[in-house]
């Protein structure tokens, strides 16, 4: 019988960055579908609204991806209590908007640590249990930026391209098993992301950066609400098949990838430069 609720496939889920934005919407969608959810934030109190609404069906977990080994240990502890996670969603992330060369490398290093190295580490620890049980689903939240790099967000682009490459690698490694891997690439959604982007002071000084920032902010504010991304993820989970899931506005998620498949990388660069007013 085909699954009609996510809980028909997955009883338990672990999701990073559940305090706001897409992560919160994903958590709510799963909770409404009857899944028991463990959700993380750096500050567990930020998860109080979910805990208040869903009671014991939701467990708040404090986790900071800047501390990779600790984050993995926190995951293992939660996994032991849950009796294994059927679904793991690596969603937490943030942006840094700045000139690559003018910004201290430690800023980029930290972002890569959080969004690539330690997200890969969380994937590594999550896949152990799934391989052993030969079932489950891994969802890594990448971005359309993996294919269409965002100006002045170099480490973000590296992290998302790397994460999508990891997802592709795992799809090959787990082919023929009952483990599903989803490479989720959202376009712009109206979340707190734009508000939580780190902008070192020097970034405001350049007119080109300023124009690119205004275009980026306008795009984020004009995007669909996070609930729309949650509905798209729900459909993908119910299909229960590994693959790439592009989601968002028609132009970003359907038309642009279709057009560039027949064009060149130079065309992608031109589209991006025009889109962000930096040509
Ligand atoms: N919004 C979009 O248009 C869009 C498009 C493509 C991809 N994405 C991706 O979707 C994911 C969610 O983005 P969003 O738009 O929902 O952003 P958001 O509203 O800013 O939420 C980000 C989440 O990540 C958590 N987080 C940030 N830094 C963390 C760290 N060091 N350790 C652990 N958790 C951390 C935050 O938790 P606390 O602050 O509570 O700790 C928060 O829950 C990100 O990976 C983002 O790159 C978003």
> Main sheet?
7 strands, parallel
Strand arrangement in the largest pleated sheet: 3-2-1-4-5-6-7
Shape by Cα distribution:
globular
Residues in helices, as a percent range: 40-55%
Number of helical segments?
10
Helices and strands, in order, run as EHEHEHEHEHEHHHEHH
> By helix and strand content, what is the structural category?
alpha/beta
Radius of gyration: 18 Å
Beta-strand content: 5-15%
SS elements, strand count: 7
| Nearest-integer average pLDDT | 95
Give an account of the 3D structure.
The chain is an alpha/beta fold. The chain has 10 helices and 7 strands. It has helices spanning 21-32, 48-54, 68-82, 105-133, 154-173, 193-196, 207-221, 226-239, 250-261, 265-275; strands at 12-15, 36-41, 58-62, 87-90, 136-141, 179-186, 243-247. A 7-stranded parallel beta sheet has the order 3-2-1-4-5-6-7, with helices on both faces. Strand 4, helix 4 and strand 5 form a beta-alpha-beta unit. It is globular, with a radius of gyration of 18 Å. The model has no long low-confidence stretch (mean pLDDT 95). Bound molecules: NADP nicotinamide-adenine-dinucleotide phosphate. NADP nicotinamide-adenine-dinucleotide phosphate is lined by residues 16-17, 19-23, 41-43, 46, 63-66, 91-94, 114, 141, 143, 186, 188-189, 191-193, 196, 220, 223.
